[in-house]
Specification:
The complex is a heterodimer.
Chain A: H1 8-24, H2 26-63, E1 69-73, H3 81-89, E2 95-103, E3 109-115, H4 133-140, E4 146-148, H5 153-157, E5 165-167, E6 175-179, H6 180-187, E7 194-197, E8 209-212, H7 220-256, H8 258-266, H9 271-316, H10 328-355, H11 364-369, H12 371-398, H13 404-437, H14 442-493, E9 498-500, H15 504-515, E10 520-534, E11 540-550, H16 554-559, E12 564-565, H17 569-578, E13 581-585, H18 586-592, E14 599-604, E15 607-617, E16 626-630, H19 631-638, E17 641-649, H20 656-667, E18 674-676, H21 677-716, H22 718-730, H23 735-777, H24 787-814, H25 817-826
Parallel strand pairs in A: 3-6, 4-5, 11-16, 13-15
Antiparallel strand pairs in A: 1-7, 1-8, 2-3, 2-7, 4-6, 9-17, 9-18, 10-11, 10-17, 12-15, 13-16, 14-15
Helix pairs in contact in A: 1-2, 1-9, 2-7, 2-9, 2-10, 2-21, 7-10, 7-14, 7-21, 9-10, 9-21, 12-13, 13-14, 13-23, 14-21, 14-23, 14-24, 21-24, 22-25, 23-24
Chain B: E1 2-13, E2 16-28, E3 33-37, H1 44-51, E4 59-64, E5 67-68, H2 74-84, E6 85-88, H3 100-111, H4 116-125, H5 141-154, E7 159-163, H6 171-188, E8 191-196, H7 199-202, E9 207-212, E10 215-218
Parallel strand pairs in B: 3-8, 3-9, 6-7, 7-8
Antiparallel strand pairs in B: 1-2, 1-4, 4-5, 9-10
Helix pairs in contact in B: 3-5, 4-5, 5-6
The chains are: A alpha+beta, B alpha/beta.
Subcellular location (chain A): Cell membrane
Main location (chain A): membrane
Keywords (chain A): Cell membrane, Membrane, Transmembrane, Transmembrane helix
Chain lengths: 827, 221
Amino acid sequence: MRPGTASPGVLRTTWLTLFSHYRRHPGQLAMLLLGLWVASALWSGVQAINASARDSYARAETLFSASLDSVTRRDNQPLSLVTYLSLRRAGEPVSPLVEGDLTLSDGTSLRVIGIDPLTLPGESGLARQQSDAASLRDWILPPHRARIAPENADAARADSRLPPLEADPSLPPGTLVTDIGVAQRLLGVETLSRLVVAPEQSLALPPTLVRQSAAALASPGQLTDSFHLNLTAMGLLALIVGLFIVHAALGLALEQRLGMLRTLRALGVPGHTLIIAMALELLLIGLLGAVLGIVSGVVLARLLLPDVAASLDALYDTDVASHLSLPWYYWLGGLAVTLGGLFSAGFGMLWRAARLDILALGKAQAWRARLHRQLRLQAGAGTVLLGVALWLGWRLDHQPNPQELALGFAMVAALLLGASLWLPPLLAGSLGLLSRRLRSHPRLQWALADLQLQLPRLQLPMMALLLALSANLGVGSMVGGFRLTFLDWLDQRLLADMYVRPPEAQYTDVAAWLEGQDEVQALLEARHAEAPRLDAEGQTTGRTLALFGITPAPIMRQSWPLLDTATGHEAAWQALDAGDGAFINEQLAHRDGLAPGDPLHLRSPQGPVMLTVAAIYPDYGNPRGEAVLSASHLTEKFAATPGSLGVVLRPGSRDVAGLQAALRERFGLGGDAVVDQGAVKRTATEIFERTFAITQALNALTLAVAGLALLTTLLAQAGARRAQLAPLWALGVSRRQLIGLQLGQLVSAATGTAVLAIPLGIGLAWALVAVINVAAFGWRLPLHIFPSQIAMTIVLAIFVAALATLLPAWRLWRVPPRQLLQEFAAI
Amino acid sequence: MLQLTNLTKTYPTPQGPLHVLDGVDLQLAPGESLALMGESGSGKSTLLHLAAGLDTPDRGDVIFEGQSIASLSEPRRAELRRQRLGLVFQQFHLVPSLSVADNLTLQARLAGREDTDWAQYLLARLGLAGLNDRYPEQLSGGQQQRLAIGRALAAKPRLLLADEPTGNLDEAAADQVLDLLRELIEESRCALLMVTHSARVATPLDRCLHLQRGRLAEADP
């Protein structure tokens, strides 16, 4: 051993001595572990959900989107075997595919995909496992074989209709792949759903068929990125709030152990040995907290995942497994984030302990003397961060940027961190000012001066409370505003009292019959089509655009919301009616930088078509860009297939049920073919509520964590506080008054925090609706401020502070006078 | 055993440099006990901190058993304190989260030479037998100071440095602690350098020096 190097025995004794502090103060250890646990659990839970969803997307993408182009009939009807054979005879390298849903005997729904392994392009995920002759023989000859997602293997094996099964982890959940003949038998069809072809192959197709490029399809991963990013942001907020607790606990433990550190140094423990022992202590606590947190995170994710999967299915039509599938790096990542967070929170403690002069080590007063310098530094750093947030906000509002979402989150982070850094200087300033003005009220003056003394310990939980309150207000305003706008928009868009979706063969008859009914005021026809986008020179861009046909009836013109037009509302509708104008949704306008008056080049079956953007309309909840034409022109130019018929009833004859019954009786329309407006609105509202349920749950949890931070800080310093309160008690202030003073101190500090949280929450709401939402989803929401939510923010702050004071106050109430006397004598 | 040569220490203050020690020379023989007296702020504690290697002089040297402490690195100074010195403070500086028994053996364990029999003997001699599992806050002031002395002696140091060891005690408790300290010093054949402002405390020791305006003078105890 080198001279002067401490032996392992010194390290061990030092470590045990340091840790003995937590044996005597288990509350502080619990506070540390609680902070780590909460931070790690919420973060890990969110990451577990994201990892599972991404695994499902990756499997879906491997299977289809990234690899094969599709060929379908222009009218979206199934393809016949004859069409396929004629293409093959003409030398076109297409392969048939059958898709459909099959309900198993236990009620599980499976997506059955039938393929022809002999013609399927070799690089596709579907073809991968039939590469050798033996497996190909098993596949195409009876009793055949099928591959199934492992999640559904057990349920499927119990179903006698299915061929022998192999579990295939590369398949998306709920998917079964088998030979095309088996699939047709299982689904009871003789037709083909579509044909597939390798993207590099060129095809000569008859005009009734259309090819859709794989690259033009947005993958589920791309579509849902914003959703997962929002979840990650909430998880990150919870992680930061949890780390605030950790930071507060470590600071408290350091302050209370300064004497011990000095003694150990004086007894011959080298400085570096002390730092190593403290780092080891952090590591041990970190590992324990991380394991607890990750395990709890997985449990939390298990509870939330079915709801998330349902939301993603409703919003983006993506299949996400409702059970967790966690890769190895998830566990390592959770451990790394927790330990990284702990060391970033503990770095300051190690740094200060390493730099402190041995002779000043025990002087707690030195820390307090630094408070003012620290407050000045915090205010300076806060000002810089707020400046950065303002600059980013201005830039994002004025200059669109491809990195908008990342910059938007950077702006939110700078705003929140900058404001929370300003909180302690503002509180200290207000306390100082009030304290000078209340000289004639000694008890109040003492309470304010005492609160200033507590500020170094209270500042972190107060900052956590500020973040949680402003997030609550900001996200609450955003969701509340979105709800108002969305419901209003639904009312404007869902004009018809009833929607009928008849089969194509009956479409004309149903429309004619409805038009002949006395109670029908108007029939709003809707159609769908897709068209390839062209550039200004008429060249293909490789992108397709969804087209939606509407009936520009007077009732539609009055209600359909428009955000922007080139030459006014009426002119826009005239252009649409005339067929040379199109409306585009906000998403398309934002992503492609289109404005009213700009040209929109498309390829129709008859050749290139140029339309003018007549107006931009809001289209909340739609992840894709879309254009609206009049239904008649869409049919004429783009061979659009019949969609739905919106039935507007005359005022006073609102017998929707009667008309539904007549349609069912006359045309045999049932199930989803006839729905009333109320049902559509209910479904849309349910999807909306479910989408934000998780955001709001995480938000409430973050607020609970901030409350816990405050409570644990108060409990951890309760002993020291009693020693400070004892002189006041000895001077004649009763315990009841002392409890009142403590409650008053915390409630005023929390109210001050809530007052700052109001502008911060409004700023956050603006950032969410005007920057993050635009970048993530492509639409901008109006900013709504709800006075009731502002009042709720203040009430919540007071409630959290009162709740956190309750337990320490109760303990103070139970302290016998004899003990207070001893504490007074010991000062 | 301990030799301080031309020891000088100056602290900067808003009013200009404050010369706390100004060329102090001092020698202490093995087994000798020396009292260092002086008014508050005379530099007594600074001298003790320099002798213990807790601080370094601006000029001069501290030589302990032929080794210059001032020239040692921080880890080597820590090792010296751990292995060969014992420190007793006016404020006791016991570890509040360790029991009486663990506090007593703390330095011995750090030095890697815990002697259970010696520790038990010390506990009995210090009047702390039966209090092994108590914590410092559950002891009286006199008991805490006796425990601090026990902690320093449990590691069998060659030199005990004590800073006002009875400053926080009443007269009776102080006498009791001092008698015990002297007896244990003799038993363990350890040298003692004690800082005090009390002539009554300094009288029984072998020698007494007076520190005034940063300089030493022989004093009549």
